[in-house]
């Protein structure tokens, strides 16, 4: 059974990668890199909010999130979205499962009730977080900590896509938070090559970026 689950996860990873490339939610430009807000030069740009504009794709994502929750986490009391990219997908998942929904801001509001978590959340609730994209994992783990501060049991975090940085894996392990993503950077590169979004000579540069993103392109 475990082997079948692994095979299915790989199939989903390639299919999600194929869809993200097709709708240009992910763009690969190793020869004309993007500049992130952090100042990093990057051969990839990812905007998973575009998936919401395609009913069939957002439905597929919702269905795969639901399967992961049922297979990996068992009983859950609340679905929470990480603002802003995880809010819509999280709400869709909560609707499918018939569960309450809340969302977590990056920081507390500076006015009103100064909430960081919006929605009805109770101590002891078993929560799964939904995120759209994981890079270093820092912002996602702030959401995890915000829910833990409210005495919730965070069973894990799910995301559409991950750059698969080692720092993110290490950070989540140290925080004792399980993480599952529908697709990832290695699967994306393999699919991009198969669908001719990139050519073979681009692969070395693209792989180097994931291994040392802060120094890539300097």
Describe the protein in words.
The protein is 42% helix and 21% strand. It is α/β, with parallel strands linked by helices and 218 residues long. The chain has a single domain (2-207), classed as Rossmann fold (3-Layer(aba) Sandwich). It has a six-stranded mixed sheet, sandwiched between helices. Strands 1-4 form a two-stranded antiparallel sheet. Helix 2 (55-72) crosses helix 3. The chain is globular. The model has no long low-confidence stretch (mean pLDDT 93).
What key attributes describe this structure?
218 residues, Rossmann fold, alpha/beta, two-stranded antiparallel sheet, globular, 7 helices
In spatial order, strands of the major sheet run: 7-6-5-8-9-10
Low-confidence stretches: none
CATH architecture: 3-Layer(aba) Sandwich
Tell me the fraction of residues in β-strands, as a range.
15-25%
Total individual domains: 1
The 3D shape can be described as globular
State the separation between the terminal residues, measured CA to CA: 46 Å
Q: How many strands, what sense, and barrel or not for the largest sheet?
A: 6 strands, mixed
Q: What is the CATH level 1 assignment?
A: Alpha Beta
SSE layout:
Elements lengths: L1 H21 L3 E3 L5 E2 L5 E2 L1 E3 L8 H18 L5 E5 L2 H13 L3 E4 L12 E2 L7 E9 L3 H12 L3 E10 L3 H9 L4 E6 H10 L8 H9 L7
Parallel strand pairs: 5-6, 5-8, 8-9, 9-10
Antiparallel strand pairs: 1-4, 2-3, 6-7
